[in-house]
Amino acid sequence: MGLKGRDVISALDFSRAEVEELFRLAERLREEIAERRILDYARGRLMATVFMEPSTRTRLSFTYAMIRLGGAVVDFGPEAATSRAKGESLEDSLRMVDGYGPDVIVLRQGTPGMAEKVAEVCEAPVINAGDGWNEHPTQALLDVYTIWRELGRVDGVTVGIMGDLKHGRTPSSLSYMLSLFDGVKIWYIAPDPLQIRPEVVERVEGRVEYSKTSKLEDVIEELDVLYVTRLQKERFPDPEEYERLKGSYRVDADFLRKFRKIPIIMHPLPRVWELDESVDSLPQAKYFEQAVNGMYVRAALVKEILGI
Ligand code: NCD
Question: How far apart are CA 142 and CA 113, in angstroms?
Answer without folding.
Answer: 22
